Amino acid sequence: MTQAPFHVPVITIDGPTASGKGTVAQRVAEHLGWHVLDSGALYRLTALACLNIQTSLNDEEAVALVASQLDVSFKADKVFLSQADVSQDIRAEHVGNTASKIAAYPQLRLALLQRQRDFQVEPGLVADGRDMGTIVFPDANLKIFLVADVQSRAERRAKQLKAKGISANLTSLLEDMQARDLRDSSRASAPLVAADDAYVIDSSNLTIEETVGKVLLHWSEKIN
Ligand code: DC
Predict the structure, then answer these.
(1) Are 163 and 91 in contact (CB under 8 A)?
(2) Which helix (H) or strand (E) holds 176?
């Protein structure tokens, strides 16, 4: 397994589902002119591929094999699986829930490890996920752990879904989110935890811009 080149800077943003880390990572990367890795998309793509070809979700080896053979490309803000644009499909709640279930498999996590590290290219990378600062980029230059209370996250997710014309029930979103938080943080392999050297930012009462501002402030403190 190749360790990423240490001279290419990395900022990791980990946190629970709907904490806003994806949008924050995107904006921070845009601001710095860096690349972005949405690692959750790789777990979602694996989940979607398994659902499409009816791989048994209980078969760890088979799921890991699907992950190692994924034909994926990211172009602008679109994601392609075997040439098909699946940008919307991977965002479906059932795909996210399936991703969270299979993400507990160590063999799957290993199958995706190098693919994630390959994103560390000049001039820099902002990587978001659950284990970016602990496992994938343990030597990252700046580690952020983004949290928000579950009620605010469920409300944000409901708003996002509504904006896309998808009806959402807040109570069931809240329950799903609590179940997913528990699964992501209690699994044995690479659980969702803050790295010891991560800065924790609570975005419950912050706008996206304010959160991005805090991350950039930490970054400018690091490099000055
Ligand atoms: O960030 P997201 O909601 O798109 O991620 C979907 C699922 O993938 C999440 O519930 C857990 C898993 N995941 C993971 O285990 N490790 C990561 N680095 C990113 C996502």
Answers:
(1) no
(2) helix 170-186
Whether pTM exceeds 0.90: yes
Answer yes or no: is the C-beta of 130 below 6 A from any ligand 1 atom: yes
For the chain, which residues make up each domain, given as ranges? 10-216
Separation in Å, CA 72 to CA 35, 57, 116, 192: 17, 20, 12, 25
Closest CA to 70 of 81, 54, 57, 86: 81
Task: Supply the residue whose CA is at minimum distance from atom 1 of ligand 1.
Answer: 40
What is the distance of C-alpha 150 from the center of its chain? 17
User: How far, in Å, from the CA of 38 to the mean position of ligand 1?
Assistant: 9
**Pair of tokens at residue 54:** 């009816």
- The CATH superfamily assigned to 10-216 is P-loop containing nucleotide triphosphate hydrolases (3.40.50.300)
Residue 191 Cα to ligand 1 midpoint, Å, equals 10
Q: Could you give the angle at which helices 170-186 and 150-163 cross, rounded to 10 degrees?
A: 120
C-alpha 224 to ligand 1 mean position (Å): 32
Q: What is the pLDDT of residues 49-100, one digit of tens each?
A: 999 999 999 999 999 999 999 999 998 889 999 999 999 999 988 999 899 9
